[in-house]
Amino acid sequence: MNDSDDAATSEAAAEAMTAPPRTDEEIPAYLAALGLPGLADIHVHFLPQNVLDKVWAYFDNAEANYGQPWPIHYRYDTDTRLRIVRGLGIRAIPALTYPHKPGMAAWLNDWNAEFAAAHSDVIHCATLYAEPEAADYVPAALAAGAKLFKVHVQVGGFSPDDRVLDPAWQALEEAQVPIVIHAGSRPLPGEYTGPKAVANVLERFPTLRFVIAHMGMPEHDEFADLAETYEGVHLDTTMYVSGYFQSPAEVAPAYRERLATLQDKIILGSDFPNIPYPYADQLSGLAGLGLGDDWMRSVLWDNGARVLGLD
Predict the structure, then answer these.
(1) Residue 306 forms beta bridges with which residues?
(2) Which residues contact 183 (CB under 8 A, 6 or more apart)?
(3) Which pLDDT score, from 0 to 100, does residue 67 have?
(4) Residue 12 has what pLDDT?
(5) Mean per-residue pLDDT pooled into runs of 10, the chain (311 residues)
(6) If we measure between CA atoms, which residue out of 246, 305, 304, 301 comes closest to residue 30?
(7) Which of 40, 43, 162, 190 would be 130's cystine partner, CB 3.0–4.6 Å?
(8) How far are the Cα atoms of 46, 52, 125, 233, 238 from residue 77, in angstroms, in the given order?
C-alpha cells in the first residue's frame, strides 16, 4: 500500500467516525453512541487538601515554571469534583497521589485507603518513594487492597531503577498491580526522567505493569518501544493531543501508525482536575487522530477496564 492509499484509508476512517464531544455535557451521549458503558480513565488525582493546595499553587505559577499559563479548569471542592467525574462517565475513579520527599508516601497511602473506603466507586490507590521503608509500606498497601499505584519521577527527584526500590518492584510484579509512572521529560525534565531507568527496571522485573503517563512525552518512540517489548507496559493519553502541548495535526505520520498498531496498549488518562482545559478536549483530540471508532473504544474503555480489572 502506498502513501496515497494510506491517506485514503485514514480519510475514510475519519469520515466514518462518530463526531466527538465539543463540551463536557456532550460526553455521555458520545459514549452512548460508541456503545461504551463509560470511561476507564486511569490518571485522575484526588489528594489530601493540604497537598492539593500546594499543587495548585505550583500551577498558579506555571508561567514561570513552564513558560505558559496553566489555569486549573476544575478548581472545586472534593465533593464537586467527584460529582463531575461521575457525570463525565468515569466508572471507577482513581485517586492518584505522589510524594515529593522521603517520609511522605506511607501517610499518603493511609489517606488513600481512607478515601477509597469512604467512596465505593473510588479505586484504592497507593504510591512510593525511593527509600528503604518502601520495602515495607508497599507490601502493606497491597495487603490492604491497593489496586493502582502512582510514581512521579520528576516531582519525586529519584530514579526508578534505584536498587532500594527492588523489593517494592518485586512485590508489585508479584501482585500484578498497575503503576502509573510519569517518567517522560515533559513538561519539565528532571535528573532522572527519560526511558532508560524505566527500561532498567523492566530488565529486572519484566512482567511489571507500568502505565507510562502522558504517552511518555517527549520521548514518545522510546516509551512506545517498551510497550511493544513488554506485555505489561501500556501508555496513557494524559494531555496528549489535547491542544495544550500538541494537536492531532502535529503528530508525525510514522507515530500515528504506531498508535494504530498499539491499539490494545493505550489507556485513557486525563490528569483531572489539574488540567488547563475542559475534559472534552482530550477526547476530541484523540478522535482527531482519525484512527477510527474501534480504536477509540479500546482507548476510552476496553484497555483501561482490562488493566484496572473492571471487565
Answers:
(1) none
(2) 151, 153, 160, 193, 194, 195, 197, 198, 212, 213, 216, 223
(3) 86
(4) 52
(5) 50 73 98 98 98 95 88 98 98 97 97 98 98 98 98 96 98 98 92 97 98 97 98 98 95 96 98 98 98 98 97 70
(6) 301
(7) 162
(8) 10, 10, 20, 34, 22
Q: Which pairing describes strands 266-267 and 148-152: parallel, antiparallel, or unpaired? A: unpaired
Reported as a single tens digit per residue, the pLDDT across 151-176 is 999 999 999 999 999 999 999 999 99
In one-letter notation, the amino acid at residue 87 is G
Class of domain 3-308: alpha beta
pLDDT tens, 281-307?
999 999 999 999 999 999 999 999 999
Between helices 195-204 and 220-229, what is the axis angle to 10°?
10
Q: Where are the domains of the chain?
A: 3-308
Residue 201 sits at the vertex; the CA angle it makes with 199 and 207, to the nearest 5 degrees, is: 95
Q: What is the pLDDT of residue 1?
A: 44
Determine if the peptide bond prior to 273 is cis (ω within 30°): yes
β-strand partners of 152: 182
Instruction: Point out which residues pair with 234 in neighbouring strands.
Output: 211
